[in-house]
Amino acid sequence: MAKKTTASRSAATSTAVLAAPPAPPERAADVEAPFIEVYGAREHNLKNVSVKIPRGQLVVFTGISGSGKSSLAFDTIYAEGQRRYMETFSAYARSFMGGLERPDVDKIEGLSPVISIEQKTTSRNPRSTVGTITEIYDFLRLLYARTAEAFSYATGAKMIRQSDEQIINYILKHFADKKLVVLAPVVKGRKGHYRELFQQIAKLGFTKVRVDGELLDITAKMQVDRYKIHDIEIVIDRLKATKEDRFRLSGSVQNSLTHGKGTMLVLDSDSGKTQFFSRFLMDPTTGIAYDDPAPNTFSFNSPYGACPTCNGLGEVQEITEESVMPDKKLSISRGGIAPLGEYRDIWIFQQLSTILKRHKASLSTALDKLPAELLEKLLYGIEEEEGADPKKAGYVEPFEGIIPFLRRQMDSDSESIRSWIQEYTQAKECPECHGYRLKKESLHFKIADKNIGELSVMDIAQLAQWFEGLESRITDRQNLIARELLKEIRKRIGFLLEVGLEYLSLHRSVRTLSGGESQRIRLATQIGTQLVGVLYIMDEPSIGLHQRDNERLIKALQHLRDIGNSVIVVEHDKDMIMNADYVLDIGPGAGIHGGHIVAEGSPRDIFQSGSLTSQYLSGEKHIELRRQKRKGDGGQLVLKGATGHNLKNVTAKFPLGKLVAVTGVSGSGKSSLIHDTLYPILNQFFFNSKKDPLPYQSIEGLELIDKVIEVDQSPIGRTPRSNPATYTGVFTEIRSLFASLPEAKIRGYGPGRFSFNVKGGRCETCEGAGMRTIEMNFLPDVHVPCETCKGRRYNRETLEVRFKGKSITDVLDMTVEKAVEYFENQPRIIRKIQVLNEVGLGYLTLGQQATTLSGGEAQRVKLATELGKKDTGKTFYILDEPTTGLHFEDINHLSDVLQKLVDKGNTVLIIEHNLDLIKVADHIIDLGPEGGGGGGTIVAQGTPEQVAKVKKGHTARFLAEELKISKYADEKVK
């Protein structure tokens, strides 16, 4: 069936080419150089690869994980493109950036400007949001600054602005023939004695002021109560509002507006009523005035727009009673108040002891036995009791309280004190701006009854809907100003919808995005730039995408190609391979067994090549499933009433002793249910973690498991020092082995001598990193090999100690596969290395830098580390998309490893989109039916076969198709 589709697509393409008009001028470059020609690529494991890649097409690099796809795409083609770009800089500019080494390749021809879009999350900055990196929020700020209407935050009334002429006309009409006092407000709702202010007013020639509603003469050394809040106005003039006196009124109004900085006040002497007037936006009832809006009024990264309470972060760090007293069964002397620790002979414990004695308790009384009022005093402080005599035994000195003391330390100049305090703080929604990040004035500018904060928390699909037909809901003047802005905003929102991100909101912090999501955001931004003649290189953009959304992603990539660009995608997804114009299959194996081009051509040519990829695509090789599903151990974990984010009061039952898959379209609520609700509950229960789960009612069955382990895709380290050997702990055993060798004992070397993280045996030039980091200022940092040790990490003396003829550096450079043979007689080492091999990482070297591992590889290193530990048979494992970056063959290996884990009695819960792994699960919980607001409910649950029959949700449709072509291992045995 797949062959037929490909053939018909090729036929359609060729017909289109025959009937197509002449190439547009921007594609002229493709005519001059129809191919990107790579000659002799030897980067990493590439074996002298020479290849011609057609330009102006969608090209997919596929092959088994670790076969060399990224080495060819990123480390050869992109690296050479980046180097050539830097060569265009002046010698002066290059002197600041250092050199970029040429990739190990003979020659590359036909290379156009290269843009790489990788999986790495773009920013760790909490101020970076989806809205800011896509620039949609910048356009929204401009839209609000130019067209929004202002409303008072006190009364909700529409703000007005008046010219001097309008103010005079209003006074003459509404206060005709009345005795008026014209006032200029100079202090509004502030504390202080204002002695200097009264002196200044007197020097200006004014004799009267109005203080807190009372008219007073200015006297020498006049001042007010400094601890009370005051309103002070200068009396500019007292007159009768008649048309004959218009000239005098005009002068008084202008004078009062000058001294009142654009605001003035009129007092009716008879009735005592006042009315405000302003040249700016102002509430006529209360006199609240706003500055004229500018784009930075709506920026949470600017002091003009950011909420003053949370500084534009949307959340505040709060010290809570729970974090200060995590275990109330303990007494103060045993460390019940966590920041103080256990009893020591210091002043604070003596003071607490005095307070407790007065209430007939002691430091050894458990906290939960103390009266609530006393705990309140300990936590929030005691003021000196009036009339208490210091000589009497009952007297208690004023006590600041533990929580106020800790809050004071949050602003300390000392970094160590601030990091100590952070252990006892929890992030809470800002009470002032309610998470919108902006000050209250900014949130009271509205377009069609919505402020900018309300728009930014809508998901992209809702936002697109709100902008539809907006012209009919706003005034003609607003339409005139907003026309071009609306066009630009709609276009950019359209690009995000095109790449399947309709469930995100502009408010979402970039730190919380997965690698696949941040990659697709950058893809949408690139489509928005409308560049032509560029080579885009992408690293698995389909990560985290449901099959339903995959189709839209493919269309987006084809759109990028059709406007005149070349697109190279490193990908394992079947649909992406079948929709490519040209496929490059790299293999045949991983690591040293890879690095060759095993097949190239159209998807149809790949089918007939007989490569490992083609065998899975054609159905010749298959991930088999069991007809007989596990019965489990009968227990279940029941999470009731989960309502966090978009979850709609979900009650989920997780059967124990089974392989459970949580599925659903992107944004349906999988991460909210598992990562943000279930995992924090389990983590708090077993390990007293501080992260709070999202709201839920109750959980049952915790006693049936004994620990929880989460394996996510975050890197195993952010520096070249971190590697699979150090992360799994096997390097500690290897160092002990080297330290026990006769040569090491003679020289007096301990295990520390063989560590590259401490002084002694390491190379001091690079401090054991093997690489020097060159800061590139406005480009990513570049790592180059150390010139002293040539990347070997250790000094000469350390490298002279050898085991089976190999030094410690040779061991780090060894692949996992080879290490299994090399350490076959070392049981403590082999156990950990064997598991790395079983999860399909045989091609990695033990010392491979963490910075070079993909998200999927980092996750499998973590998985291997957990599998290397002795399990209890009651462990609850949570895995987040473990198939990321995996070829069909590797998914087969992974499936076997997970099945073995479950066979021992453990429970494995996977959040997954890949049908090959979903179909081998014992139990599926499918969330949906849509993403964002349209998701958050369980649409189906049961075995894969039961879910496939359900007519709701998108997973069922794709799973039913997959099961039709799947084979059952049980039946084959029969």
UniProtKB/TrEMBL annotation:
First-listed, main subcellular location of the protein, grouped into a coarse class: cytoplasm
Biased composition annotated in UniProt, kind: Low complexity: 1-20
Cell location: Cytoplasm
UniProt cross-references to Gene3D superfamilies, sorted A to Z: ABC transporter ATPase domain-like (1.10.8.280), ABC transporter ATPase like domain (1.20.1580.10), ATP-grasp fold, A domain (3.30.1490.20), P-loop containing nucleotide triphosphate hydrolases (3.40.50.300)
SUPFAM superfamilies per record: P-loop containing nucleoside triphosphate hydrolases
InterPro entries found in the cross-reference section: ABC_transporter-like_ATP-bd (IPR003439), ABC_transporter-like_CS (IPR017871), ATP_grasp_subdomain_1 (IPR013815), P-loop_NTPase (IPR027417), UvrA (IPR004602), UvrA_DNA-bd (IPR041552), UvrA_inter (IPR041102)
GO-annotated molecular function: hydrolase activity
Annotated segments matching region Disordered: 1-26
UniProt keyword annotation of Hydrolase present: yes
Signal peptide: 1-19
Source organism, top-level taxon: Bacteria
Domain ABC transporter: 350-619, 623-960
Residues passing through the membrane, by range: none
Keywords: ATP-binding, Cytoplasm, DNA damage, DNA excision, DNA repair, DNA-binding, Excision nuclease, Hydrolase, Metal-binding, Nucleotide-binding, Repeat, Signal, Zinc, Zinc-finger
Pfam families linked: UvrA_DNA-bind, UvrA_inter
Family label: Belongs to the ABC transporter superfamily. UvrA family.
PANTHER family (alphabetical): UVRABC SYSTEM PROTEIN A (PTHR43152:SF3)
Protein name as it appears in the record: UvrABC system protein A
